[in-house]
Amino acid sequence: MTFSKLAVFLTLVALTICAGCDSTQSSAKLDRDVGTVALEIDFGGEKRSKSIDVVCSPDSTVLSTLQRAENTGELKIEFSGSGETAFVNSIDGVKNDGDGSNWTYRVNDDLGDKSAGVFPVGPGDRISWTFGAKPEELD
């Protein structure tokens, strides 16, 4: 009988610990720092520029911000790859043309130095996508 009581006690302790872990994780999710990112799209004269405030979270990237804007119906994007190989091919039908005008992005005025799929952004950041000639910094 003592063994049975010990087994029941240990089971209750394990369940209590697990329940505590779950509630801690749930409250951590609720406490996540969520805000907005200012997304600016300059079509280089191809069409009128857009400014959109997009909800973001601590794990947001430049690309996931574009995807959220697309999910709200604010714009349409085409991209290939994912993560480090993600590449934005077009925004609202304006497509890269290879040797001439292409899409580049800046975060808080700094030219993106990696794929939009891995470049992190957070609440209060400003993402600017510009369609046009290669930025001077890349010459």
From TrEMBL:
Keywords: Signal
Domain Transcobalamin-like C-terminal: 60-132
InterPro entries: Transcobalamin-like_C
The UniProt record lists the keyword Signal: yes
Signal peptide bounds: 1-19
KW DNA-binding (keyword) present: no
Protein name: Transcobalamin-like C-terminal domain-containing protein
Lineage: Bacteria, Pseudomonadati, Planctomycetota, Planctomycetia, Pirellulales
